[in-house]
Amino acid sequence: MRRVYLDNNATTPVLPEVLEAMRPYFAERFGNASSIHHHGQETRAAVESARESVAALLGCRASEVVFTSGGTEADNLAIFGLAGAGDHVITSTVEHHAVLNACKHLAEYRDKYRDKYPETTGCDVTYLPVDGRGLVDPADVKRALRPNTKLITIMFANNETGVLQPVAEIGKIAAEADIYFHTDAVQAASKVPIDVNKIGCDLLTISGHKFHGPQGVGALYVRKGTQLDPMFYGGNHERSRRAGTENVPGIVGFGKAAELARAGFELGNDRDDSRADQKMAAARDRLERELLKIDATGLNGEGAPRVPNTTNIYFDGIEGEALVIALDLKGLAISTGAACSSGAIEPSHVLTAMGLRRDRAKASIRFSLGKQNTAEDIDFALGLIPETVARLRELSPVYNKAASSELRAASNQRGARP
């Protein structure tokens, strides 16, 4: 069976160049990067070279890059490394669960010990709403500021809709108020250019497996001068910001993926004058355009700026997970949203925050392209999705009842007998 993968926001396949760069560090170059002998210094050089590549992708100094086990750890390090007792944190209702649950923990700690230790308990958290496009209003950020606000954490690109938040405007507000600003850029890295100085952030999260690097490695950009408390205690790895022996093969692969991503912006995937993001956007737009020709569909995040690889579409009258399973049986991999929420009974918190009805949120599907996808992959998807949606709707008593009601209403308007 032919298989096509359009779930690249969940994870991406490791590129061949990345795998080749990693291969020696699983065997002959096995040294601990903290050792001072030849084997250790060989791997230390590889780690620092990768750090330079990640820094170049972000537009920062290499010394400001802290390697982690992935995006979740980096988000947690940014939040728990800064926010403490009595502080106030501002975030949004559409953040990744790595941010939302970290903030929830801060608030729960406060509520749990408020009566017993009123002077030392945790943080207050403000969750900002989004509009129907999924965008945070920077004016809401400004209005939410308090004298004890310590941190603003608003994502760069949403993992479900691809919507890009106005992070540069938020960064300016944070700078003027002298407040730390963190942005989760896991879904933005390699899809749109990132420059931490233009954004004005103090901390920024990325993860290797979202742009064709290996799983299990990520990074937190920490602006020079930011005092960050570590979450792990041990050696003085990563300038005492993240204890633990470095994952050298993962870091090397991460660095190579960052190098390729940066080259993609400069030269295009095919090493010609066209931009990689423009090619991906054209493929995404074609998929989106054709799918929206299906009756009772719509685009989630319409009218908002988005990363070039992602579209999120609702198909009224079906269950999104039923469509995911039906298409997987035919060789097409897609998703209903965040991989970490797969199998959840509740609809997407992102889509409901945008104002979608519960049934429509549960009928929404995310399509996310990667560098490996071709025009033939889009053809394959378009050959399967319309007929599969139609079949599922035939089996849906809810959809058929609604469709019959619409037909009767239209017939009555024409003066005909129902």
Which characteristics define this entry?
418 residues; alpha/beta; seven-stranded mixed beta sheet; 15 helices; globular
Kindly describe this structure.
The protein is α/β, with parallel strands linked by helices. It has 15 helices and 12 strands. It is 42% helix and 12% strand. Helix 3 (71-80) packs parallel to helix 4. The model is unreliable at 269-274 and 414-418 (pLDDT under 50). Strand 5 (149-153), helix 6 (167-177) and strand 6 form a beta-alpha-beta unit. The strands form 3 sheets. Strands 2-8-7-6-5-3-4 form a 7-stranded mixed sheet, sandwiched between helices. Strands 9-10-12 form a 3-stranded antiparallel sheet.
Per-chain topology:
Elements: E1 4-5, H1 16-22, H2 38-58, E2 65-68, H3 71-80, E3 88-92, H4 97-113, E4 124-128, H5 138-144, E5 149-153, H6 167-177, E6 180-184, H7 196-199, E7 203-207, E8 218-222, H8 237-240, H9 248-267, H10 276-291, E9 297-299, E10 310-315, H11 320-329, E11 332-333, H12 349-353, H13 358-362, E12 364-368, H14 375-394, H15 397-413
Parallel strand pairs: 1-11, 3-4, 3-5, 5-6, 6-7
Antiparallel strand pairs: 2-8, 7-8, 9-10, 10-12
Helix pairs in contact: 1-9, 2-9, 3-4, 10-14, 11-14
**Number of helices, where a helix is a run of at least 4 consecutive DSSP H or I residues:** 15
H-E order: EHHEHEHEHEHEHEEHHHEEHEHHEHH
User: Please, what is the average pLDDT?
Assistant: 91
Percentage of helical residues? 40-55%
